[in-house]
Structure formats: C-alpha cells, structure tokens
DNA sequence: CTGATTATGATTGATTATGATTATAATAGA
DNA sequence: TCTATTATAATCATAATCAATCATAATCAG
C-alpha cells in the first residue's frame, strides 16, 4: 500500500531529524518512489523551513540538532548499516513475526520495516521499541530483562525466559565477530546467552554484520555459522567465507559498497 | 442498514485513529457509499480539525504530530505531577527495589529518583526505561510484553509472567479512577490485569493520583483501596476519602497546591 | 398535503501526484 | 585546470483524485 505524500514527508523528516541527513538515493530506495518525487518533497519541506536542502539530499535544519560531531559519530557507518538493513528488510514479508536483536546495526532495520503492515516485531532493545512506538500497524513485543547501560539491550534470565514462550519466523541478529572456526561471538557472556536463545526460537536466522566483523572472534560464543539461514553484509568479503557459506548452503548477501557524499 | 452520517463519521474517525490513515476507496467499500459522500465527510472532519486530509484519503491528526500531543498530554498537569512525584520519591530509600508503573503521572518519579544510589527499578514502560538509561548506578529491569501504542505501556501475558518471578519492596502505580466503592480502575482491561499483578508482587503499594481521579470509576478494576499502603495526591480531597483512608489506616499524602512559585 | 431542507450519488472538467525525459548545473577525479 | 559523473530543475504526459454542480430521494415543518 503506497504512502500518502503527507506520510512520506513526515517520515523523511523524522529520518533526517534522527540521523542529521538523508540522501535522495536512499530515500528513493526506502520509499520506492522516483527521484522527482523525493526532490519535490525535499524542496517543499525546505520552503517550510523544515530542513535544509543539499546536493544529493538534505540535512536537518533543527537547532535541536546540536553537536555535529555527535551526529558524525553516530553516522560513522550509517550508510553501510542503512544498506545492510534495507537488504535485510527485503527478506521480511507482511504478516511475518520477526525478532530484532538490539544493536546499532539492527536499528536501521526497524526504521526500514516501518512501511510494512501486519508485522509482529519482537525485540530486546528499548531503543528499537521506541523507534516503533508510532507505528500503530506494527505489533511490538518487548522482551523484558535487565537493561545493560552499555548497549541499551535487555538481557538476563527474564529475557531468556520470555523467549522461552515465543517462536518467530525470522530472527535478525547483530554480532561482534563472525569467523569460520570461531563462529559467532560477542564480548558479553550474558548477551551471548540471550542471542543463543534467539537462535533457538527462530525458524530462520539472519546475521547483519558489516565487513569489519569478518574474521573477528570475541569472548563469548553464541552460535556457529551453520546455525544461520543467511548473513547480510557489505563490501569485500574474503573468498574463504564465500566458499564456506556456499558449501554449507548458507545465504551470503553482499550489498555493494558504492559510497556517496562526504 | 444505512448509517446516519454522524455515525459513519464517528466510525471513519475511529478507524483513522486506530490505523493512522484511511483511503477514500477503502471507506467507500467499508460503508457502501459513494466517493462524494466520503469526501464530504472527510472534508467536514478536516474543518473540525479531527483529521488531516491527503490526496486519496486522510491521516490521523494525532499521529502526524504525535510528539507535540504527547508532550502536551504530559504537560497538562505537569506542575502537579511533578510535586506528587517528588513527594512519592521521598518514600524511596537507597537500596530499595521498586516497581514503577507506566504512565504520565509516574514519569516524573523516575526523573526524581535519578539522584538516588543503589536502586533497582522495575518498570513496564519503555519511556521510563529510556529516561533511566544514562543512570549507571540504577539497575533497570524492564518487564517484557506487548507495547500498547496508546499508553506506551508493556502489557499482556508476557508482562504478567515476568512479574511472577519478581518481588519488590515498593510499587508506585498510576490510576484513572479511585473511588471508595469502585476501588482502583483503569479504562483498559489488559492494563488492569498487569496493575493487579503489580499489587500482588509488592510489599508496599502506593498510588499516585492527582485530585481529578478521585470519585472516578473507569471500566476495569485492578484493586481495592484497602490494597494500598498509601496514596499521594494534590489539591482538595473530599472529606469522605480522608476519613475512609484514616479508618483503614492507609496513608493519604496530600501535597499542597500552591507550594513553590510559578 | 406542499414546499423546504438534507443527504446522497452521478457527472465532468479541474487539480494533484507522480514518473519519465532532457538540458543544465554542481561535484569529483585526473 | 579539464573532463566525467552525478544531481538538478524544468517540462511534459498520464493516471488518480478532486471540487463543483446538478438531480434525486428521503425527511421534516407547517
């Protein structure tokens, strides 16, 4: 179902306010409309002083957006994560029940799935839940648990226990390390336990990992590569991984790294 | 059975508020009337500021500027709630494990307790958890559950089940109605169930209720006044309540209305 | 009853949203 | 710098949607 221009503009605006900027190309992909439409939207909103137009996109006009360095830091790999997230979103269908792990890599995913309907999203992240709080057509289920201040993730026995009683079609996890022998790893042992549980409770398991995670092994292991249904990443992936994934019949989806702006 | 136009308009409005949007075509099919009629309805309701018209349909006026309305709602009795919250905070000691119910009345409470140390805060609100995310000396536990978009509260079986395994020293609840015979009530039956569970799992139970809640009875009951340890409120409370609370030996803490300037 | 009012549906020319195209402008790379 | 690439505004075509209008039927007042 197509969005009305009002809705689209609202989402563009919140996207820009959240991330400081947006490119025409990304918005085209996000909303599935033409460049003309996006440009018209941006120009109209600029007239209303809601944002500032730039070549290739627009930036936030809001004085609320302090500290350009902060935006920069958050946005460091924003483009890559955005692309990975959009690709991951393409695996999701209307009516699915999905599980979205906490983490900065999966956060753009919940942004990307806002346009879907009749979706049930289970998450162990307060931030992800907040991002979906104004999407009335998406059923949001938050796993309980102890809030880890470091990662804003909910972890621990309450989380694992909540997962016990749930089963989802697809799980989308982040990881700190993905290695052929070391498997899937993360620095925190309690988060690893929760991630493991997520794998157990999902039919299909996808990992979102930018290419810097490949070949890395962190402290706590939460799964093997063979546990996966697929992995979505970007950039150059070592041939050994490509072969190993192919041999195990695991999907390896690599989004192109064509850079833009800045 | 033909609908009267008023009835149709009401249903269109609730449809839009529920789903955030509606298309002329869908409404035509839903109500079996012509496009002209639907457009007239929508235009009239737009004049009354009940919704926002778009090409092809209409979107909710609330969801478009959800943020301001939410802030507005929070701010409505902000001064009063602030005072009630500060008073409630005085019942909390370092080292306590407390439960804070979702709601606009209890939100200032978590702001007020940030200064305390060694506190464990259990909450069923994503918003409350977010407010505490940068307080590393406070252990935050989020109850899981389905996110109710209307109140941003987590409710349902997952929430209740998470509560099963917890016990807290003090619970701080909001309520929509507090009445001598009607007890404690709230409009939503699922939220009532969660509130009931909270009462069961706490040693001391406090209700935060501004004076407009007294004598009100909402749809779903979650407890009796005799369940309470105390009630913190403001303004003028009817003498019958004062006597009843005194007789049941329940604390009734009334913060004065013109305390501190502004 | 009659005439007025109201709600509705049908018709139609006008308006809007959108995508495609193209010549121009801005940017990046050599 | 100059050139290639990319983004842009301006234009046009088209399909969807709309407002305005009129006709009809139901309802209401007297």
Write structural notes for this entry.
- Two copies of one chain form a homodimer.
- By secondary structure, the first copy, chain A, is α/β, with parallel strands linked by helices.
- The first copy, chain A, folds into two domains: 5-75, Orthogonal Bundle (Arc Repressor Mutant, subunit A), CATH 1.10.10; 78-255, Rossmann fold.
- Chain A has helices at residues 5-19, 24-31, 35-47, 68-75, 78-89, 107-112, 126-131, 157-164, 189-200, 239-247; strands at residues 21-23, 51-54, 57-60, 97-100, 119-123, 138-142, 145-148, 153-155, 168-174, 177-179, 183-186, 202-208, 220-223, 230-234, 251-255.
- The first copy, chain A, has a seven-stranded parallel beta sheet. In chain A, strands 1-3-2 form a three-stranded antiparallel beta sheet.
- The longest helix of chain A has 15 residues, at 5-19.
- The A-B interface holds A 4-7, 10, 126-127, 129-130, 132-137, 139-147, 149, 152, 154, 158-159, 161-162, 165 and B 18-21, 52, 54-57, 59, 63-64, 66, 126-127, 129-130, 132-136, 139-147, 149, 152, 154, 158-159, 161-162, 165-166.
- Strand 6 (138-142) of chain A pairs antiparallel with strand 7 of chain B.
- Chain A binds a DNA duplex (30 and 30 nucleotides) through helix 3.
Oligomer: homodimer
Major sheet characteristics of chain A: 7 strands, parallel
Any idea how many domains of chain A? 2
Q: How many strands appear in the DSSP assignment of chain A?
A: 15
What is the straight-line distance between the termini of chain A?
Answer: 34 Å
At CATH's second level, what is the architecture of the largest domain in chain A? Answer: 3-Layer(aba) Sandwich
| CATH topology term of the largest domain in chain A | Rossmann fold
What's the Cα radius of gyration of chain A? 19 Å
Mean pLDDT of chain A: 85
What's the helix count of chain A? 10
Largest interface comes to:
A-B, 32 and 40 residues
């Amino acid at each position: 179902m197509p969005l009305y221009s009002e809705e689209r503009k609202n989402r563009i605006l919140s996207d820009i306010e959240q991330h400081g900027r947006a490119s025409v190309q990304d918005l085209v992909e996000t909303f599935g409309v033409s460049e003309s439409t996006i440009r018209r939207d941006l120009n109209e909103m600029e007239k209303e002083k809601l944002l500032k137009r730039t070549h290739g996109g627009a930036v936030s006009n809001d004085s609320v957006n302090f500290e350009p360095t902060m935006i920069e830091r958050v946005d460091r790999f924003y483009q890559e994560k955005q692309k990975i997230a959009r690709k991951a979103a393409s695996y999701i269908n209307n009516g699915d029940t999905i599980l979205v792990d906490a983490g900065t890599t999966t956060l753009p995913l919940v942004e990307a799935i806002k346009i879907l309907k009749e979706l049930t999203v289970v998450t162990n992240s307060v931030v992800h839940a907040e991002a979906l709080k104004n999407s009335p057509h998406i059923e949001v289920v938050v796993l309980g648990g102890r809030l880890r201040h470091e990662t804003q993730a909910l972890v621990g026995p309450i989380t694992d226990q909540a997962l016990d009683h749930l089963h989802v079609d697809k799980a989308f996890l982040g990881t700190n390390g993905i290695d052929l022998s070391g498997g899937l790893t993360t620095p925190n042992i309690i988060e690893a336990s929760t991630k493991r549980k997520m794998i157990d409770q999902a039919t299909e398991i996808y990992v979102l990992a930018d290419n810097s995670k490949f070949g890395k092994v962190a402290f706590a292991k939460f799964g093997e590569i063979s546990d996966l249904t697929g992995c979505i990443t970007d950039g150059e992936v070592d041939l050994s991984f490509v072969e190993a994934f192919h041999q195990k019949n695991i999907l390896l989806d690599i989004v192109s790294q064509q850079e833009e702006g800045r």
